[in-house]
Predict the structure of Probable membrane transporter protein.
Amino acid sequence: MSGQELLGYASAVIVGLVIGLAGGGGSILTVPIFVYVFNIPTVMATTYSLFVVGSTSLVGSINHVWKKRVDLPVTLAFALPSFISVYLSRRFLVPALPDPMFQVEQFTLSKSDAVLYFFAIVMILAARAMIRSDRPEQGEAADGRPRYQTLALDGLAVGLLTGTIGAGGGFLIVPMLVLLAGLSIQRAVATSVLIIAVNSFVGFLGDIHHSTLNWNFLLPFTGLSIIGIFMGMYLARYIAPDQLKKGFGWFVLMVAGYMIIKELL
C-alpha cells in the first residue's frame, strides 16, 4: 500500500470524526478523497460517498435515537420529501446528464468536471458557514411550532444536492432545523445525523442499478469512518465543536481551492 493510499484511509477517520462532532461537514471530504487520492472516477466517487456517509451516519444516529436526542416528527417532515428528491436525482437525473455537458469550439466541459466544479462551489459555501460558526438561537419557529411545509420544501432541495454531489448536506440541515423547527443545537445535530444517514442510503439505492462497486475497498474505508464517528461522539462531550468546525472550514476552503485550480489547469 502506497503512502498516498495510507493518507486516504487515515482521512476516512477524519470524515467520521467531523460527522460525530458536528452532525455534518465530514461528508464533503469523501468525494475529493476518492477522486484525488484513490483516482476513482467522479460519478463513481459520489456513489461511494453516499455509502460511506450513509453507513457512518447510521451508526451515529442509532446512538442518538437510543438516547432520545432525535426529534422524529421533524425528521419525517424534512426527510420524506428529501428521500424522494435524492432517489430520483440518483436514479434518473445524474445518469441522464450529457457528457460533455457543454462544448463551444475548443472548450469542452465534461460531466465529471461539471460535477467537481459544482462540488467545489458547495464546499466553499460549507466552509463559509463553518468558519462563521453561525449558531442561530431562534428563527421562524421561535414559538416552538415547527414550520413543516417549509421544512418539506427545504428537504426537497437538500435531497437534490445530496443526489447530485454525494454529500449529506449536514451544514445546511442543522441551521434549518434550528430556524424552522425550533430545535436546540444538540437536538438539531442529532436529528441531522439520522436524516443524512437515510438520505445517503436512499441515494445509494438509486445508484446500484447502474454501478459495479469495489467492496474490498469500500468496506474497509467505511469501517475506518465509523471508528471516526465514535471518536467524534465521545469527544463531543468534552470539546465545543465550534472552534473545531472553524478550523475544519478553513481546511475545506483550501481543498476547494485546490480542486478548482487543478481542474482549470
